[in-house]
Amino acid sequence: MASKRKANEAGSSNDLRADVLRVLGVLKVATADQIQRLASPHLTYRHTLKKTAAKRKEARTASHRGAANDLRRHGLAIDGGRTKGGEEVRLLTPAGLAAAAIDLDREPEEMVGMPKSAGRSGASHAMTVNETVIALIRPKPDLDLVAGQPAEAVAAAQAAARAPDGIGTLTSYATEVALPVKGTWKNPAIGSARADVVVTAPDAGVPLLFIEADNCTEEAVLIARKFDKYARFFQRKEKDTDGIEKPMWRIRWSTRERERYERVQHPPVLLVFHQVGKRSANTQMAKVAELTRHHWQGGWHEKDGYHSYDGCIPIVATTLELLREHGPAGPAFWRFGRDHREPLLDAIGNPRLDAVLARRRAEARERQRRREAREAAEREARRPVCADCGHKFSDNRWEAVDRRDWSLPRQSHPRLCEDCQTRAVAAEQQAEADERKRQEQEQEQERLRQEAEAEQAARKAGGWLGRWRT
């Protein structure tokens, strides 16, 4: 115990240190509060009897602060400055990133490098990215670990546990992901995009989603220019291991292609605005939508009533406030080109097209059913009828008498059903047996007649010879 305490002076457990490694491996820079909310959400509902919010926060984050301090002593983490609110941020060293890669089952190249000077400028952008990830995941507390807490805390934890699910888990997310228009994933060329967040959660209906966070500090034109880079990246193609040229992003991320109606579908991009800067989030959305219209605007199909987005980038926008309030399952997302907010899956999808495709599939199934019914009726009309009993042949009997299949043994009575053939064969066999018996009887009678005649002839001959001798 003494050596363990000396190695981990803050007394953290392996699980707590692993929590910190995993969260920082994904987010790159985070506060103890964010680490706790992601890794141990049940702690949010403890220590509720503390008098002030600051003391409650200090109590619930104490374990992960201790774990981060122990990782720092081992050279796996460092202090990264403070947020504008005064919270200390933590980040991993190269050794820490390598250790996190093992825990996250990721290649070292996927971990990127250490963020530069994140805390020196208040880490406001990094904090918005982290809060976006937390709002999308919506970590749920383990209610067993909240047992014994005050009734209000338990009720709040139960409400959180019953709330709609978020999108994926921590391992579904990656941050600071390069999207090279030229160069490699590890060494992208100048002019490449870099996604703030990439989400891969196919089980939640989100096979691939790129996220850009903005604190309402950048000009709309600068945000719009990012989509020029996205478009160039989406259009870049490389040869896969099978020798077939594919979009570069499809080689790294496996997603199911849409049906033949939209084969050139690009992954969606979500813009999350946080009202920190002086610019209005709603105004920013409207400006970016207008500036990127050539990237997202689809074509209207009047006949079927849907938009086709072949070759377009689905762009969706929301605010961090709306995302926190509604979560991904609520009406928090505006798809550029639409006039209402909707849940994330509807916003990044194409419900009208899905309805059209569903209707087409249903119509195709109905046509197939009718065709099969018609073919079955026509086949039934051709089904042979037994010449004896008048019953229709079974499928097996019909197949057996089909003279087109010469591999089948020839049937003795092809115009009879199986039962009638059995009876006919039995009757024929009985008739043959009766005929053999009759013939045998006639032959026996003929033999006996011939023997009688021979005996009678012998007696006559014997009588004549006797008289001649005397």
Question: In words, what does this structure look like?
Answer:
The chain has 470 residues and is α+β, with helices and mostly antiparallel strands. Among the domains are: 1-121, Arc Repressor Mutant, subunit A (Orthogonal Bundle), CATH 1.10.10; 164-349, no CATH class. It has 16 helices and 14 strands. A hairpin with a 5-residue loop joins β7 and β8. The radius of gyration is 43 Å and the shape is elongated. The protein starts with a helix and ends with a helix.
Distinctive features:
Arc Repressor Mutant, subunit A, three-stranded antiparallel sheet, seven-stranded mixed sheet, single chain, alpha+beta, about 475 residues
CA radius of gyration: 43 Å
Helix and strand run: HHEHHEEHHHEEEHEEHEHHEEEHEEHHHH
Instruction: Tell me the number of helical segments per DSSP (H or I, 4 or more residues long).
Output: 16
Biggest β-sheet: count, sense, barrel? 7 strands, mixed
Structural class by secondary-structure content: alpha+beta
Cα(first) to Cα(last) distance is 150 Å
Measured by DSSP, the beta-strand proportion falls in: 5-15%
Please state the overall shape, judged from the principal axes of the Cα atoms. elongated
Number of strands: 14
Major sheet: arrangement of strands = 4-5-6-9-12-13-14
Approximate helicity band: 40-55%
What low-confidence regions span 5 or more consecutive residues with pLDDT below 50?
Answer: 1-5, 259-263
Q: What is the average of the pLDDT values?
A: 88
